[in-house]
Amino acid sequence: MAALAASAAFAQAVIVAPYAPPPPRVEVMPAPRAGYVWDQGHWHWRQGRYVWIPGHWQVVRVGYHWVPGHWAARGPAWRWVPGHWA
Fold first, then answer.
1. Which candidate, 63, 58, 46, 51, places its Cα nearest to that of 84?
2. Given phi > 0 = left and psi -120 to 50 = alpha, else beta, which region is 48?
3. Distance of alpha carbon 52 from alpha carbon 43, whole angstroms
4. Residue-level pLDDT at 6
5. Would you give the distance in Å from CA 75 to the centre of its chain?
């Protein structure tokens, strides 16, 4: 039962939009912070439209690197691929 609960905790909703997101906004990255990596802002599909999510800091995970989220074309639609540690 614990394994089921743990896997459910990591489940993420699949986000699909009917058309491409607008170009990314230009963000000025704050000065680097020790122990953190900057996760750039991105467009998020919410309630039938794109909304901008500003960039933010992610706490570094030793031995991993941050892969930013991105939109990927899937036929006529666009699917959000969340950022993750690899």
1. 58
2. left
3. 5
4. 47
5. 21
User: Rounded distance, CA 15 to CA 17, Å?
Assistant: 7
List, in sequence order, every residue forming a beta bridge with 72; answer none if it has no partner: 79
Closest CA to 75 of 17, 15, 4, 31: 17
Q: In sequence order, which residues have a C-beta less than 8 Å from that of residue 60 and are 6 or more positions away? A: 35, 36, 37
pTM of the model: 0.79
User: pLDDT (tens digit, 0 to 9) for every residue of the chain, 86 residues total?
Assistant: 445 444 445 567 899 999 999 999 999 989 999 999 999 999 999 999 999 999 999 999 999 999 999 999 999 999 999 999 99
